[in-house]
Protein 1
Amino acid sequence: MTKVGLSPNKRTMTQSPDKTAAKKLHIKTFGCQMNAYDSERMAEALQPAGFQLTDDVYDADLVVLNTCHIREKAAEKVYSELGRLRKAKEARKTEGRDTMVAVAGCVAQAEGKEIVSRAPVVDIVVGPQSLHRLADLVAEVSSTGKVLVETDFPAEEKFAELPQRADGKRQVSAFVTVQEGCDKFCTFCVVPYTRGSEYSRTPGEVVAEVERLATRGVREVTLLGQNVNAYHGDGPDGESWPLAQLLRRLGEIPSIERLRFTTSHPHDMDDDLIALFGDEQKLMPYLHLPFQSGSDRILAAMNRKHTAEEYEALIARIRAARTDLALSTDIIVGFPGETDADFEATLDLVARVGFAQAYSFKYSARPGTPAANLEDQVPEAAKKERLAALQTLLEEGRRSFDRQLVGRSLPVLFESKGRNPGQIRGRSPYLQAVHVDGPETLIGEIAEVDISSAGPNSLTGVMKSGIEWREPVQAAQ
Ligand code: SAH
Ligand code: SF4
Ligand code: F3S
């Protein structure tokens, strides 16, 4: 399942192993979509060195863990994973096969060589801005047997040097990183330290990448950035292009039918971008806009640069531009000093705004961030209780958003086969998965669907009558 939002979930890259290839590569991805994008780029960067993807870790000559540092739990997962890899490496050794282990991503950046001291199984530590160096690092480790740690910050170099997507399977919806890093320094967050300061790719580069994707059948593009709406790329006209201008330009690519972007910061929602929700037909009516807390005192301590009232006023302006907007958000409970009253303010804001989707987290103290040193850390039991109460409310909101879609007709972009035979699966403009009986020939197409029911995780519908589609041609036996 690919959900828009920067909330960590675990993915394993899968591709049928090539039995003839000399070397096998296994990549396990944690964290946000920017990591997923980076994992794809790493796989391509290693292809010229003869590495083919395998989903069997025991089969892999090189294992890359692309890691996330956002919360303690995410970071600790890396070490349990490395424990398992040590055993795999030992088992392969007894068969005379070597295994190289690389730790990439945000834990690599944050912990650097500490990782090697804690887990000697690791051969390479490579930060998110140095991924383009991975093939060289692998070659160097192969010849010298040395352990290498590379955690520099040349983002520009990374995008310039990473190879472009390799041809391959049909992909209907694609993510494209356009901005990386963060200068906001929310007091709870590691991203400014793991991804460095804000950097935007040029519109020229982005347009070229999206055009290439379009020629391979991609119909929907989600622009990614830690603060994607702070995007400011140097345009071919010598001007700095804001995100709205980039989206408008991408909307001119004929076969790109849908545009999305994530994650945005409320502070960077400018008028042009808000207006675009009303003007640009291809921009989907879905916005992920984290607010973190409904209490102004906590928002100030978090350094979020806005109050609850300002957030609500902003939402009202965006909804005025696009009345059917589906909103998504991120919320933290148990930030240091959060009282019951502060938490109530968060619940109230959720109830007033109404979210179609949300990601909520218990505050996790991260080493090196200002909030980690604050006194009055909230006890775990209180955090747990608040999270449960919040999630109940959010789930009600999500279900009620989905329910009001039942009986409506929605354009669905079909992405893949469905759960059951004869079914196909797509997404509504509001990002819910939609299951419909229909032919696979519709994958990559948009068709109107009458939504008939809303399940716990997806909608079900029937193809609107009058829509023309061909039955798949059966090959002669
Ligand atoms: N740039 C995005 C968020 C990136 S991190 C933004 O500004 O909103 C994704 C989410 O993880 C954050 O929105 C926040 O809700 C959560 N998060 C970040 N640091 C956290 C921490 N230390 N403890 C708990 N949740 C955290
Ligand atoms: Fe982290 Fe705040 Fe930057 Fe988002 S805006 S990445 S929460 S520091
Ligand atoms: Fe995690 Fe790094 Fe993304 S800390 S959320 S993988 S930017």
Protein 2
Amino acid sequence: MNVLNDNINKLNNHLERFRAGGIMNRVAGQDMPGTGGMFPSISPVDKSVICDVALGTAADIDRAANAAHDAFASWRDMPAMTRKKILVRIADGIEARAEEIALCECWDTGQAYKFMSKAALRGAENFRYFADQVVQARDGQHLQSPTLMNVTTRKPIGPVGVITPWNTPFMLSTWKIAPALAAGCTVVHKPAEASPLTARLLVEISEEAGLPPGVLNTVNGFGDDAGKALCEHPAIKAIAFVGESRTGSLITKQGADTLKRNHLELGGKNPVIVFDDADLERALDAVIFMIYSINGERCTSSSRLLIQDTIREEFEAKLIARVNRIKVGHPLDPATEIGPLVSQEHFDKVTSYFEIARQDGATVAAGGETVGNDGYFVRPTLFTGANNQMRIAQEEIFGPVLTSISFSTEEEALQIANDTDYGLTGYVWTNDLTRALRFTDRLDAGMIWVNSENVRHLPTPFGGVKASGIGRDGGDWSFEFYMEQKHIGFATGQHKITKLGAL
Ligand code: NAD
């Protein structure tokens, strides 16, 4: 309780300046009010107004895009080692303010401090990792042919737009912004309207670290106005987007006239498949972690449990006991495992599935109820007796809600796992090596873990197939997106050039 009070006091100190002056947009190193006025940011913990936030419109996006355009040439041409040093200083700045970032993130999004303190540090890791790649980011290849020496080189694509969602917003923003800056691009960031606080901290930290004005600009506001204008702006060469699949489709449409390059990281309905030969204790830990941590508001969450019928009863019984013991509480209490859902709208969506599950004939084996009236709290929920045709098995609920489906054979498990519009991640639990090889080869997903929860390694490709997205982040894949390949062929001699119109 003391730690909770202590955290609340620290949070209040950090929020004082935002309560007094609101959160402004940041364009070309200057605070700018939104031309649309202000909108309130609401805390999901108690539904109170945290502060007012500048409401950005197309006019603000235009200013920010022009600022990013004006800052581009000098940022692109800055010596790589100088750019690297700035990115390292941003990582240092994030680490120095990690507690402030985590406290603000929890209050803004409802995520538990237990997870957000690590997520803030992951943001620093993202900057440090891509800072290390700055020097070689432009390196190309040498592809000799009989008459030419062909070389390739990479150039930053130009100013880019980054549009992020409200789940772990700080970490996700750094995951996009760090490689963009490392590549030599300038950025206009449109954070989610539900979670503006830590985007403001990121731009402050970046400028304090020496990032020149206009290299990172932040415009707050809503998707159908500021977000849309960013996609349509001719000075913006690419959009890195993280959010829902239907928004991803809008991003593509909106960018069509300006031939925008889009990278889309979208939704998921990811299966975790547990075979009866697996290490069931470890599988249980991973199944619980991958759906109930981060409030289940996580694109890679394993929201469908596919459990072999021979072990279903025993596994589900253990699962129910553990789920019922998960601690729902104040997100700033370090013991809390699940905080409130991010907003009224999302709370209404998640809780609607409690009734949908009953109507579809599934059993609500744990949870299925809200907690208190102060904020958007729900009990961690488990649906059993489900089949893959039910809405609870097909739709992304994006909360601490797991749907359990049983299967008898490997073939059936594969068919159920792939019977979804999405294809982000898959998790396979088996001690049969050849089955693991066979199964992962046929599972439709961008990322698969065998006998493991999602353990992110930054050089590996991150992204989904089907409605879960287009494109990959991570390692050099990030630079493929933020840079253009250029080929130059040098003649090595006097090769024959076909003559036209010659006598
Ligand atoms: P969302 O699509 O509603 O919003 C995401 C962002 O897009 C917000 O900033 C929003 O303002 C903006 N936006 C909305 N409409 C827009 C438009 N027409 N043009 C431009 N921008 C627009 O998503 P959300 O509810 O904030 O986030 C949850 C979703 O994000 C889930 O579906 C989740 O799976 C997905 N997600 C995916 C990944 C991944 O890596 N695949 C990671 C995290 C979250």
